[in-house]
Amino acid sequence: MSAQSLFTHPHIGLGCMNVSHAYGMPLEENQAIEALQAAFEMGYRHFDTATLYGGGNNELLVGKALKDHRNEFFLASKCGMAMVNGKKEINGRPDNLRKQCEDSLKRLQTDHIDLYYLHRLDPNVPIEESAGTLGDLVKEGKIGNVGLSEVSADTLIRAHVETPIKAIQSEYSLWTRNPEIAVLETCQKLGTTFVAFSPLARGFLTGVLKDITELDAKDIRNNMPRFHAEHYPNNLALLNDYLALAKDIGCTPAQLALAWLRAKDDNIVSIPGTRSVQHMQDNLAATQLTLDAKQIGLLDEMINQNNVHGTRYTAAQQAEIDTEEF
């Protein structure tokens, strides 16, 4: 299955998380709804949310903003990770996934979700059980396709035996290359679309974040090693040639990062998240940018897993995911 055949808009979707979760203070409800509606109006046709984001509030916002256009866009959400009594909980048990799906449908004001991911692998529940439950929800018409997030190639293969896995969502960008170890190749073999979250390296590849002390106290990047004071200056130095190349090509740094991903594999969909309407427009325009082999080679050498400073996650964060590591 190609990205074109699964998603309404083939290569760029909108990650909705940060209108209400993770990066600084949430937007006020009216501002968030206006931003989501603006994204639809400018041409976004793939919106990605989750049970976890904003403790369910993100799904509420997406539902309120886009319910009148429900049949005109591709809706993705996630289950298996949620805020429970103020604490994040990973729970892939069949009964829990079913309940979360019903709750998501209500919050999103729809009778079906086009793509429903298992947000994280529950180490206490065999992937076959979780995937099988989602496969049953497809048969019942509540979801259109089953996806998995932040899993290894081995987990993908096991799940795919149980029910067709139509999409894998994991972090992928110039500075996070883990999917290149095995998952991208496995996706190609199985006909599974790869969905790249944080394709702009959590804002790093935009070139805007120069001073990490300016981050909001609740910004999740404060707890990510690559943004720590001992690593970030070294990472910033990697941007010099990158920003010069973007200027030479005549595109924004964000567009360069998104075009690199598309050039890597036509089966890749990117879902950059932003609350800025201007950034939404810039990102969507990246679909018009095509890089040549020389430019791709330069980018591969400029920023990669061998020269980036700091790990992607802390040990506690790493324990929550199932992806291969270099």
TrEMBL record:
Leader sequence segment: none
Entry keyword Oxidoreductase: yes
Claim: Ubl conjugation is one of the keywords in the record: no
Cited Pfam families: Aldo_ket_red
SUPFAM superfamilies: NAD(P)-linked oxidoreductase
Domain NADP-dependent oxidoreductase: 12-303
UniProt entry keywords in alphabetical sequence: Oxidoreductase
GO function term, MF aspect, one: oxidoreductase activity
Cellular compartments per GO CC: cytoplasm
PANTHER family, per database record: AFLATOXIN B1 ALDEHYDE REDUCTASE (PTHR43625), ALDO-KETO REDUCTASE YAKC [NADP(+)] (PTHR43625:SF40)
UniProt name for this protein: Aryl-alcohol dehydrogenase-like predicted oxidoreductase
Species of origin: Marinomonas foliarum
